[in-house]
Write a structure and sequence with these properties.
This is Pdgfa associated protein 1a. It comes from Acanthochromis polyacanthus. It holds the Pfam family PP28. By secondary structure, the protein is mostly helical. It has a domain of 55 residues. Helix 1 packs across helix 2. The radius of gyration is 45 Å and the shape is elongated.
């Protein structure tokens, strides 16, 4: 169902432009067409005025922050450091994961070193197992030799 033209919002009165306002806008437009450089100069002055207003706004806190005077003691503000202030030569702290990873690698290397020297329990068990297998193979080789001699 199509509705008729746009209707104003309930309770809102219609707004009409003042004839003085229309005249002022038309004069400004004519001046702009006649002198385009004049508008640039006046806009530069207005930019300077607006920048000073923006600075004062940035000092004021917006919204609820302006009302509350207490700072949060737990809040840590991020301070940006300049490149000249950074100390590249200083050793950086490792994270917990990195420290644990390095410890794990070192302990693994230590264990492998001891294992190759035969000082760990696993290495001793392996060596004992190898010794038993060696004896069994020697005995089997002797039996084969005896069977060849006899046979």
């Amino acid at each position: 169902m199509p509705r008729g033209g746009k209707k104003g919002h309930k309770g809102r009165s219609k707004q009409f432009s003042n004839p003085e306002e229309i005249d002022r806008q038309m004069k400004a437009q004519k001046e702009l067409e006649e002198n385009p450089g004049a508008e640039k100069e006046s806009s530069a002055e207005s930019d300077e005025d607006s920048s000073s207003e923006e600075e004062s706004d940035s000092r004021k806190r917006s919204g609820v922050e302006g009302l509350i005077q207490i700072e949060n003691p737990n809040r840590v503000s991020q301070k940006s450091k300049k490149v000249t202030e950074l100390d590249v030569s200083a050793p950086r702290e490792l994270s917990r994961r990195e420290r644990e990873e390095i410890e794990k690698q070192k302990s693994k290397e230590r264990y492998m070193k001891l294992h190759l020297e035969g000082k760990t329990e696993q290495a001793r068990a392996d060596l004992a197992r190898l010794a038993i297998i060696k004896k069994q193979r020697e005995e089997a080789a002797k039996k084969r030799d005896e069977l060849r001699k006899v046979g």
